[in-house]
Description:
The protein is mainly alpha-helical. The protein is 55% helix and 5% strand.
Amino acid sequence: MQVVGDMWGTGFFKANACDFCDDVTTELADISVGDAWLEPYVKDGKGTNVLVVRSLMADMIIRDGIVSHKLSLEDLPLDRFISSQQGSFNHRHSGLSYRIKRAKKMGRLVPPKRFADDNSITVDYKLVQYFRLIVRKKSLEIWKNVLNVGLFDKKMKKYLRLLKRATQMNHYKKAVMKRLSILSK
C-alpha cells in the first residue's frame, strides 16, 4: 500500500457505483470485517480487524475459533468501533449528499439513499469530496493510457497534491473546532 499509495483514502481505481454506497458495515452480512483504524492496532502490522457478528450461527463459529485458539478477539466498546470506522462513516454518510447532488446536477440517475439529505457538510469537506472524485476519475483514465506505475505516479501527483491539501485543511479545521468546543465548556 505504501508503494501504491492510500487507495481507499484517495479513491484510486474505485468504481463510480462505490460513490453511492451508504453501507459502512455490510449490514446484511452475518459477519462483517473491517480494518481496525485505531491505536494500538493501526500500526501493529498484524492485519488486526474489527468484527461485527449478526447471527447465532456466525457467533458459534467465532466462539469455536476462540476456544480452539485459531482466533484471538477482544471486546471493543461501540464508541471505539465507530471511531475505528469514522472515515468510512463520514464518506458514506456525510459525503454522500454532496456526491448525489453533484451527480443529479450532471443529469445522472441516482438510487434513493438513507443518508442523502445531510445538508451539514462543510465547504472544506465538499472540497475533499470533489478532489476524491477527480482522483478516482483520473486514476482510471491515466492508468488505462500509461500502464506504467512510474508514469502513473508522475501524472497523478498534481491531483493527489490537491486532495492532500484539501484533506489537511479539513482535518485542521476539525481539530480547531474540537479545541474550541472543549474550551467553551
